[in-house]
Each structure stands twice: as structure tokens, then as C-alpha cells.
Amino acid sequence: MARKKKKSGAGGFFLGAALGAAAGAIAGVLTAPKSGKQTRADIARGSKKVARKTKSEGKKFAAKAEKEFRKATGGGRKKAKSSKSRK
User: Fold this and answer.
1) Closest Cα to residue 30, out of 49, 14, 22, 20?
2) Statement: residue 6 has pLDDT above 60
3) Residue 76: is its pLDDT beyond 80?
4) Over the chain, what is the mean pLDDT?
């Protein structure tokens, strides 16, 4: 029976830290002495900021992944020969 490779645990730590930070930020916003209107505006601004950052980082990641893919495959995608053309 093959054994599974153990993970270092660093990913779990950082995931936990990120979730804890998010929970703390949410709790801070919801318990701040502001009116509901101000709180909703803060949440809207924060969510727009996160959306912009996510989109930006996603584009960077996609560009880097494409660059690595092209590097690994020798410059681009090659068409696979179909079984019909091998006759």
C-alpha cells in the first residue's frame, strides 16, 4: 500500500491565520461605534477593494502560469494527432 506524503503544515497555518484575520476584521467592523449606514459603506468599500486586488492578482497568476506552461511545453500547444489521421 502506498503511503501518502505528509504536508509541512505551513499551508494550514497560513490558512488559519488568514481566516482568523478575516474574522477579526469582520468583528471589528460590526462592533465599531458607527451608524449602520457608515458600516455598510465601509463594507462596500472594503469588498470593492478586495475584488480589485483579487482580479489583479488573478491576472498576474494567469500570466505567470501561461509563461511556465509555454516554457515547459517548448513554446506552445501542439495539436495531438487524431486516430483517424494515422491510417
Assistant:
1) 22
2) no
3) no
4) 78
Q: Where are the alpha helices (DSSP H) in 1-87?
A: 10-31, 36-73
Compute the distance between CA of residue 83 and CA of residue 23 in angstroms, rounded to an integer: 54
Amino acid present at 36: G
The set of cell numbers assigned to 48 is 470593492
Q: How far apart are CA 20 and CA 17, in angstroms?
A: 5
Instruction: Give tens-digit pLDDT for 29-59.
Output: 778 788 888 888 888 898 888 888 888 888 8
Nearest to 39 by CA among 51, 27, 29: 29
Cβ-based neighbours of 81, under 8 Å, separated by 6 or more: none
Distance from C-alpha of 36 to C-alpha of 30, rounded to nearest angstrom: 9
Cα–Cα distance, 74 to 87 (Å, whole number) = 28
The span from the CA of 34 to the CA of 46, in Å, is 16
